Amino acid sequence: MIRPSRDVSLHAGVLAALLLLFFVTSAYHNGNLARIMVLAVFAMGYNFLFGYTGLLSLGHALFFSAGMYGLGISMNHLDMTVLPAFGMGILASLAVTGAIGFLALRTSGVAFMIVTLMFAQAGYLTILLFGKYTRGDEGFVIQQAERTLFGIDLTDPTNRYFAAFALFAVSYLFIAWAVRTSFGRCLVAIRENEARARMLGYDTARHKYLALLASGVLSGASGAGYALLFGYAGATFASVQYSILPLLWVLLGGAGTTIGPLVGTAFAFYLVDVSSEFTSAYLLVVGATIVFLTLFFPQGLSGELRRRLAPWLP
Amino acid sequence: MASVSLLETRQVCKNFGGLDALVNVDFDLPGGQVRALIGPNGAGKSTLVGTICGRIKPTSGSILFDGQEITQMATHRRICLGIAYTFQITSVFSRLTAFENVALGVRRIHGNRRHKVRGLVMEALERVNIADLARQRAGDLSYGHQRLLEIAMGLGQSPVLFIMDEPTQGLSEGEIEGFKELIRSLSGQTTILLIEHNMNVVMETAQYITVLNSGSVLAEGTGDEMRRNKQVQAAYLGRN
Amino acid sequence: MKKENTQHLAGVSRRSALKSIGALGGAAAFSSIPGFTGMVHGQTDEPVRLGFQVHRTGIGAAYGRWYERTTNAAVERINNMGGINGRPIEIVGEDDGTDPKRGAEVVEKFATQHNCDAAFGTLFSHVVIGSAPRAGELKLPYLVVSEGHHVASGILNRYTLQPCITDVKSQVQAMAPFVHDNLGKKVTMIYPDFAFGHDHRDYFSEAFARRGGTILEQIAIPPAETAFTRYFPRIPRDTEILYHVMVGPAVLTFVKELGEFFGGSGPALFGFIDSLEAVDMNSPGLEFLDGSYFWEGMPRYQQEGMLEFDAEYRAAVGVDANGASISDSRDVSTYAHMFGCWETLHFIRDVMTAAAGSGNMKQAMIEAAEGVTDIAESIEHPQGAKLFNGKTHQVFGHQYISKVEGNRLNVVHSTSIEDTFYPDEVDYTQQEL
Amino acid sequence: MEFGPHFLLATLEGALTAAVLALTAVGLSVVFGIMRVVNVAHGEFFMLGAVIAWFVSTLVGVHPAIGFALALVAAPVAVGALAIVADRLVLRRLNYDPERTIVATIGLLYCIQQLTLMTFGPDARPVVPPFNQRIALPWFEFGEQGLQVIWPWGFGITTYKLAVIAFAVIILVGLWQFLARSRFGLVMRATQLDREMAQAFGIPIDRVYGLVFGLGAGLAALGAVLIVPIRQAHYLMGHEPLLLSFIVVIIGGLGSIPGTIIAAVLIGLSDGIISVFFSPTLAKIIATLLVAFVLVFRPQGLFGLRSA
């Protein structure tokens, strides 16, 4: 099969490159990369369910915002410090994913898409309903002074970068490891042919549930990380748009590949960022690029790389 | 009295929207035997093995495996007891390599121990003579090779009971010979339940034959007994 | 956690007495700040770069277009008058998609990529709140034109100011006396079910009750709703005044369905112009609004004998006497809000002028701004005189109430600045710069 | 307002929502059912219908009724033609791969929105209805003098809203007949059942797909033209009809046109009726969860077959 050394060197290379980029790029790109790394965790979580397990959810904004509000509300209303609040973010996303997964996984295919979409919409409206605590669409700020961890000021650009890097690295290595385990390979089997996987003796329902939990928790970690590092929580992040974005990032970057989500998130970010500098019609550029990519890079950027140059790409 | 049967079905019935597919089927399979399940089209062969491996829930009756009641047990748990099943319609993971197809079953039993898994997978592939195709995508294999891969997937699980639904369909003459060889080499180690249309294969491999007709057991016995059985002849000739 | 500061505006009466000294112009107010007078060295010809966060796409796009036109007009005027400390203003405009995530990214880009001296111009509250933390961390003066109560509520930071447009809390509470004394005692409120609407609900209800009125019912409309008739039966029969405010693309539907629902026999209406901002009063279906009242931040239709700088401002921006584009009379501006960009740019010029020569321009700008108190009515501040509160970073000003008469809005009342005061909720000057 | 009239009013408003939703959702349903693609840009076709209606009715500038009548024909045709072009240039080249069409139609969505923003602008623009009379509705009550007719405050509907409901019903019945009886309908059903088989029988699949995509988009545009005199044209208006029709199609059961219509009526009415009993946002939450739970316990939709 695949020689492990290439995998390991790819993962090490990606992480080393991200570390190196901090020292060679400008403050502006540093800031962008910190953001991209945090959001790539969201995309990786999404990819774990969609790219590896084959379940297309349209409700991940809810898992992201569960983490975001879990941290934000714990800090602003319960006066928690960063670490326990981050734990609350994780717990909140775990609880929300656990409950929704229990119901939504009774369905599959398009019904799964709609059920997750509906639960996420209900979640979004619930955030508005409890505007007293969430400040609804307007959201709230997590004060700069409170965003410190072990005495480290997370709002400092360097610290922020490395905090984002740490979150990214942990998630990335988790995914890289998980997809190599027999659990991860079974997810791929479920994606390819669930009935057959069951007939090989795998409890596919349990596998899907665990995959959804992992996916939800990674999304929640990303949401909590975003709120923590950028100081804001708001209902916008629970809206449908933020369920479609990770799908888009993953498909652009390459579904079912470990580096796809990072590639896709970075690509989408810079596509908007660069094109909006040249034209106010940047959405047209973004839209046309997306259509172009789907026509000529059917498996996403890193999927295409795998197909053409590096079939071993995990 | 302690049961010597590995598999027993008791009064199994299955009704599909008013249509009786199985009627009070009592079926016993002793451990170590190679058994063929034959019968005309629509006799209920696939339905019966479906209820055994859990793809189909029986309307009534019970199924025992190794003395354990498994009628309500989830499919994957039955498989974990040592039942392997190859599909009638080829159902491989077409975008994964042949190696990975077999490895999935092996890993479920042996965990993710790289060398152990590699050894068992290659062994299974070699037994069906497609070891040289291990790195190919299953979907790119010829139909016959996909059928053999299905069998290798079952072998990889070292099953106690190996159920094969029309394994020789689509195989070439040479491959059928190899298949017969394989069954003979397995007999004694593994209990095999074979649904088969190719009478040549049945006669040469099965120690015992069960004939199913219109959802119930028509006759059981050795190949020679069945050949002579008037009812069996009628069932087949009546259709032809 | 946010500290409640119940201290009242110090010296309010003295400051409001200064209102009459309008002719002094903007820069006069700063002369009393020590250390900032007459320091003009360190001047360069480099343009002053101002990051302009524009709602070009998304639900704020109708506002964004007019904010951009107003901004361009103000920049042209300021540059023709010699710019800031002799340096021309260069606007670095970038779309934020009316999205808090992109908004924060854009602010970051202004600070670290474009080396802007300040950022300004954001309207939608969620974009302001999403972006402000980044502005504060990057120490980039961030001057918003939003109406939100976010700045004055104390949740933002020392680098965020709202110097030229009043906030919803002061607007809303200033309406209560007029509504109570002239329109009716029993009010039903309809507002969008998000923070902006909740501010209306909370602050108006409180002020109206203080005045002795009764709130009969509060009807919150879910966001992104496109059909409204089914909610109107919740309006109690004995409602004397229906208080309405709606934002977003469906505002016209809302107002039209309100008219169709009552069919000419409903309660009196009092609304915030947000319900009809950028909407032509001659639009089909709005006839029933005749005789109803609206709050306006700045009167859309040119008024006889008031707001003396209004005409000049209209000409500069390219808006006719009816608040529509000079080139297309059906293209109605967001007149009640967009003056904020014009005034904010002049404010930036004045504080940067006052801060000229100091080592850290951005810090000096904030300090200079915090020293501002009175803002006189002038061509630079055509909406009217204002009083800036350096502690809360929020400006206070006049509010206008207009009546719809023959498809135009005529001002019937303007509040005093004092009507809009409320106790301070924060003292940003206590925060580190 | 008293419960009775309130309930009836909410039902009437729900019926209006249902009528337009049915048209839009049937458009999505034929695309989804036959081509098996999720067209994320469906809402943008709806929006374009409204925008074109505005252009046609304002540029023609004669009597509003004539402009509107013209828009009723021009908008669906133009939008349908555009969809056919999009099918030919993009979807066909993707071989209707489910995942890739999602991404490609997201791209189309951005393009259409931005182009509309650049030409039509960001404002909500009204279209004058061809006729619009408010009809006050009566209510019956047992008072002291026995059964009385009362005219509750605000209890009414406009003639135009009633006409929209009627018109939508006519179009849907016509469409149903067309699909059930015409040759094209037969070809469509054959394609839906088995693409390969249909191809083997000499059905030009590519052309059928193009026409189906055009028909779907045209129906969305037609729904939009009908609603635009009530709800204005705006470049972001496609979002809600997309979500709602998507839901309706799944609840109705994939590819079942009668199922889609019944689901549209159920969703439209329940959205209206639930709003009578709960505070507005809570009503939305309940309506949303209701859809989720219907699918959790009946994943094939209300009228779909289990195997689907």
SSE run of chain A: HHHHHHEEEHHHHEHHHH
Please state roughly what percent of the residues of chain D sit in beta strands, choosing from under 5%, 5-15%, 15-25%, 25-35%, 35-45% or over 45%.
Answer: 5-15%
Q: Biggest β-sheet of chain A: count, sense, barrel?
A: 2 strands, antiparallel
SSE string of chain D, helix = H, strand = E? HHHHEEEEHHHHHHH
Q: Main sheet of chain D, how many strands, which sense, barrel?
A: 2 strands, antiparallel
Q: What is the count of β-strands of chain D?
A: 4
Q: Which protein chains are joined by the largest interface, and how many residues does each one contribute?
A: A-D, 44 and 45 residues
Find the CATH topology of chain A: ABC transporter involved in vitamin B12 uptake, BtuC
Strand order of the largest sheet of chain A: 1-4
Please indicate the count of domains of chain A. 1
Cα-atom Rg of chain D, whole angstroms?
Answer: 21 Å
Termini separation of chain A: 12 Å
Distance between the termini of chain D: 45 Å
Overall pLDDT of chain A: 90
Give your account of this protein's structure.
The complex is a heterotetramer of chains A (314), B (240), C (433) and D (308). Chain B has 240 residues and is α/β, with parallel strands linked by helices. Chain B contains 9 helices and 10 strands. Chain B has helices spanning 45-53, 75-80, 98-110, 114-127, 143-156, 173-186, 199-205, 223-228, 230-239, and strands at 5-16, 19-30, 34-38, 60-65, 68-69, 83-86, 161-165, 191-195, 208-213, 216-221. Chain B has a 6-stranded mixed beta sheet with strand order 6-7-8-3-9-10, with helices on both faces. In chain B, strands 2-1-4-5 form a 4-stranded antiparallel beta sheet, covered by helices on one side. In chain B, strand 4 (60-65) and strand 5 form a beta hairpin. The termini of chain B are far apart. In chain C, the strands form 3 sheets. A 7-stranded mixed beta sheet of chain C has the order 7-6-8-9-10-14-15, covered by helices on one side. In chain C, strands 2-1-3-4-5 form a 5-stranded parallel beta sheet, sandwiched between helices. Chain C has a 3-stranded antiparallel beta sheet with strand order 11-12-13, with no helix packed on it. Helix content of chain C is 32%, strand content 17%. Chain C has 2 domains: 12-167 and 334-397 and 422-430, Response regulator (Rossmann fold, 3-Layer(aba) Sandwich), CATH 3.40.50.2300; 169-305, Response regulator (Rossmann fold). Chain C contains 11 helices and 15 strands. The model of chain C is unreliable at 1-42 (pLDDT under 50). By secondary structure, chain D is mostly helical. Chain D is 72% helix and 5% strand. In chain D, strands 1-4 form a two-stranded antiparallel sheet. Chain D has a two-stranded antiparallel ribbon with strand order 2-3. Chain D has helices spanning 3-35, 42-60, 64-91, 98-120, 159-181, 183-193, 195-200, 205-231, 239-252, 257-277, 280-297, and strands at 134-136, 139-143, 146-150, 156-158. In chain D, helix 1 runs parallel beside helix 5 (159-181) and helix 1 packs antiparallel against helix 8. Chains A and D meet through helix 5, helix 11 and helix 13 of A and helix 4, helix 9 and helix 11 of D.
